[in-house]
Recover the amino acids of this structure.
């Protein structure tokens, strides 16, 4: 079981990750950056999976 302070910390990180993801989803990227944009979104998903393992 997570301590209350660690749980609050992880929740704040998830909220920030949600904000970052929302901003990334609003971005318009030139086609030449499509691969890097995909990698960025993939990394956001990776961080989200790591978060899920810690809860």
């Amino acid at each position: 079981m997570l301590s209350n302070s660690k749980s609050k910390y992880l929740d704040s990180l998830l909220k920030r990750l949600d904000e970052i993801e929302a901003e990334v989803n609003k971005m318009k990227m030139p086609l030449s950056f499509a691969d890097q944009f995909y990698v960025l979104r993939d990394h956001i998903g990776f961080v989200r999976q790591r978060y899920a393992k810690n809860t």
Remarks:
- The chain has a mean pLDDT of 89.
